[in-house]
Structures are given as C-alpha cells and as structure tokens.
C-alpha cells in the first residue's frame, strides 16, 4: 500500500465514532488520575489495561496513548496549586510553578504547562512518524546477535540512567530478571521456580504484576502516610492562554531544545518523561540568560521542561514499536497491550499491519491536539478535582485493581500476584530501590535469554560471533563502552587525585 492509502486506512480506523469516544473518555480519566497527587501516569495506564481487554486493537492503544499524555500534563495542576506534583514528570518544575502561583501568576504557569506540553508532544510524534518506519527497515536486518546487544544496552541504560544509586538499581534489575525466569517459557522448556504450583508454570503475568507495583504500592503509601492533606490554594483562575504567544516568541530555542532533548531521552530505554523533565530543567537553568530567576517563579524552566516531558512520550514509542523494547515503564505496559491485541511489536509489525502502525501515529497527533481544550477544562475544574478525599478514592482504585487482575485469566491467582508485587514495590521504594529496573528486567529478561541461546546455537558455542557482523559488532562496542564508562571515569579520577612524588 502507498502512503496515501495507508493514511486513509489509518484515518478510517481512528476517526471512527467509537474510537473518538474512547479517546475522550481516556483523556478525562488520564486528566483525573494525573491531577491527583501520588497517582502517576504509569498508574493511569496500568488501571486502563483491564478495560482494553474488551476493545479492538486501535481503540485499546488509543486509550493508553491518550490517558498517558493527559496524565503527564495534568500532573502540573496540583504542582502549581499545591506544590505537590501529580506525576513524577512534573516534579522538576513544581517549585517554580508554585512560586508563580504565590505571585498571582497561576494562569501563566498552568497555561505554559498545557500549551508547551502539547507542542512537545506533537514534536515527539513527528519524530516517531519520521524515524520509526526507517528504523524498522534497518531492524529487518537484525538477527538474534543484534537483538542480544540491544537488550543488554536497554538493561544497562535502565541501571545507569534511571537511579541515583547504581547498586540499588542493579539489585532491582536482578529481582526483575529473577521474576522473568519463573515458569516454562524458556528455551529449554524446563519449569523454573514453580515449586510444584501449576499456576506458576505459565510464569508471572506481566499485567497483574505491573498493576500491583504501581497502583497497590501507592495505596499502601497512602494508608501509612500520617501527614495531613495539603491545603488547596483557592483562587479565581483567569485565561490560561493569555501571553502564550508572547512566550512562544520569547523562548523558541527553549521550546525546540526541550522537545529535542525530551524525544532523545525518551528513545533511551529506561529513561522516560521523568528523566527528560529533570534533565531539561537543569539544562534550561544552565543555559539561561537569567539563571538567578530560577526558583523564584520564572516561567522559562516550565516552558522547556514542559515540552520535554510530553515529547519523551513519542520518543519512548520508537524502540517499543520497532524493537519491542520499552522506552519506559508506560511503554512496557503498552507493549503488553500490543501483544494482547496481536500487534506484536517489532519490524514485522510495519510489514504485516502498516495501517495499524499509522493509526497509532494518528492517535498521537489527535491526543496532543485534544489535550489543549480538555486540559483547559481540567484546569477550570482543578480545584474541585483536588478536593476528592483520598479515603474515598483509594478503596475504589483497590477494587478496580482486584477486578482487573482477576479478569485477565479469571483466577484469584492474578489478584494474589497483584497484591504480592504491590507489597514488594512498596518495600523497595521505601528503601530507595527503584521499581523501573525491576519491570525492565522482567520485560527484557526473556528476550535476553532467548536471543543469547539462539545465537550460541547458531554459532556452535563460539562467543566471538557476536562481533563478526557489522551492526552487531558496532552495537557490542557501544554497549561495552557504556557499561565500562563509569568504571573508566572513576579510575581516571583516582589516578589524577594521587599525589605526585
């Protein structure tokens, strides 16, 4: 099919009334969840998964994409009004936005978050549309050797980028790899860590596990939190779009830089919108002509960082669609939904279901466009949304998690998995262990083992074959450099610090 035919087929799939209704519903859900402090965009995605079981592929993916984009933006709302970021992606500029609110500039803080999030999201989508098909053609030349190095690269990036403590990130990653070993789904077909339990023969189901790690852990955190609820800063909000054109003309470099950095960070496995937002805010302050204004209610950091966190969403889908490797925890859940719907990620997806791939691209564009009016409505209703008592909200979420986990295989075992991993995630996070490397370990562990065993069988056990193919050798060298770069820089610093006699 040529490009026009594909675009027409994709438009027919996306502009179906049922899909549009699903997108509007998912948008409202994402805005609501993102605006509640403590409930993340990942949690919004995980809670939607059980509902997508009953949808065709395109509306299911549309619901995930729309809810995620909305939740990442709406995390700005409690950040600006309460100084509590609704999602981790909004944490970087929460103080800045709150300081603007204290100065009576909450409209500009919220408007900048909304408008430049939409612009960043559209930029990331443009890169996704331009880069993904081209990368898919290259990916068709990949075999198990290249995928092995890609998986190693993904695991290493998750450890070294996603946490302040490398040791704790490695431990979390090993926990994830251990969980991924459970069951019969391995090249040898040998039951591992099943302890005679037939339910464990099929392995740990990814969706109940992720719902537990992101949703149940938040509920537990709410239950044990004894701090009084934060006070909502009540004030009459004006026109949030006033002055946005002036900001666009004043900060074009910052908007472009934030969008480019966010997309680039989103592409890197394990990084995601949270990391993109922090890196972009730090870069904005470093390169600003007015760095002394940062932290006092200066909009420049919100413009750049807001563009970065939503552009990361489109970037994260590039490795997810082309290689089946999640860019962050949200795309890890989205990959699970793609598999459930028969849209197995990878280069063959572009050959076998091109109309669905272009429909996903179109969903990104529509989601970022409708973000502006729906986000404006959410801002207007924000003070009411923020008054929803947690002791009413959390039991509803717990019930939703339990029903969703049960519905996957119609067994109580799924609920048990959800509760067990929710408790595990809570203990990990309370002790400073990041959850994302554990999720990536589960997602990538199976791929790592399959590609390694397949490669060794092809090469008759010769490990040097991993460096004989040009792409494989390049990826291998790159991976080794990234893995040993921290050690090399540490050794250089030690040598320079030694006294000279």
TrEMBL record:
<feature type="transmembrane region" description="Helical">
    <location>
        <begin position="316"/>
        <end position="339"/>
    </location>
</feature>
<feature type="transmembrane region" description="Helical">
    <location>
        <begin position="200"/>
        <end position="220"/>
    </location>
</feature>
<dbReference type="InterPro" id="IPR002823">
    <property type="entry name" value="DUF112_TM"/>
</dbReference>
<feature type="transmembrane region" description="Helical">
    <location>
        <begin position="147"/>
        <end position="180"/>
    </location>
</feature>
<feature type="transmembrane region" description="Helical">
    <location>
        <begin position="471"/>
        <end position="492"/>
    </location>
</feature>
<keyword id="KW-0472">Membrane</keyword>
<feature type="transmembrane region" description="Helical">
    <location>
        <begin position="359"/>
        <end position="379"/>
    </location>
</feature>
<keyword id="KW-1133">Transmembrane helix</keyword>
<feature type="transmembrane region" description="Helical">
    <location>
        <begin position="109"/>
        <end position="135"/>
    </location>
</feature>
<feature type="transmembrane region" description="Helical">
    <location>
        <begin position="391"/>
        <end position="424"/>
    </location>
</feature>
<dbReference type="Pfam" id="PF01970">
    <property type="entry name" value="TctA"/>
</dbReference>
<feature type="domain" description="DUF112">
    <location>
        <begin position="20"/>
        <end position="440"/>
    </location>
</feature>
<feature type="transmembrane region" description="Helical">
    <location>
        <begin position="20"/>
        <end position="40"/>
    </location>
</feature>
<protein>
    <submittedName>
        <fullName>Tripartite tricarboxylate transporter permease</fullName>
    </submittedName>
</protein>
<feature type="transmembrane region" description="Helical">
    <location>
        <begin position="47"/>
        <end position="73"/>
    </location>
</feature>
<keyword id="KW-0812">Transmembrane</keyword>
